């Protein structure tokens, strides 16, 4: 078995000390030089270990002050399930209400945006074809907990009452219900989750450390004719949220 990288070993040691209450939430850690000397590693190894624990929400860095044990916080549960589409409400708001939080979102829509190559491939259209793009910030008690950027083919909804996802009589109804309003039946969705580090912009919007761990979900809705009707990039911070998938069982 390959030997564990030194920074992971140091991260485990720091995590153990916190678990054993050697350091309590709010305590300032010794300097990187002190930790490095104690464990016989360089300061860069300690830095990588601390950055990993910061990205996981175990530690927090304070500019000009040092590294501290983070205060424990309740992770928000984000449920992914095809059964959670509601004709008269938002699954996100329902999830937040179950946690005793107020769920809401802010959005910005731009119409007639040329599709980048990756988005065009996911929607089955030509690169440069026009789309409606909507950027979302989902909030729990006014705190950002999830980002999403949605793309819909403009020719699918142009001239209808649902062309703007957050405008008109069907504002905020969700993809499935909005498409149903124009006679398009959404039959299924495909999601591809993968971990990665947050970009600088994502970190700023979510209030997390730059390069913190996030789960990036690529989701695409399909009609019963097999046409992609919407695709989205959903970004969830790992330290603040846990993702749970509900799988319906057909009997």
UniProtKB/TrEMBL annotation:
It comes from Streptomyces macrolidinus. SMART domains: HTH_GNTR (SM00345), UTRA (SM00866). This is GntR family transcriptional regulator. InterPro entries: Bact_HTH_transcr_reg, Chorismate_lyase_/UTRA_dom_sf, Tscrpt_reg_HTH_GntR, UTRA, WH-like_DNA-bd_sf, WH_DNA-bd_sf. The keyword Transcription regulation applies. PANTHER family: GNTR-FAMILY TRANSCRIPTIONAL REGULATOR, MANNOSYL-D-GLYCERATE TRANSPORT/METABOLISM SYSTEM REPRESSOR MNGR-RELATED. Transmembrane segments: none annotated. Keywords: DNA-binding, Transcription, Transcription regulation. Pfam families: GntR (PF00392), UTRA (PF07702). Residues 4-72 form the HTH gntR-type domain.
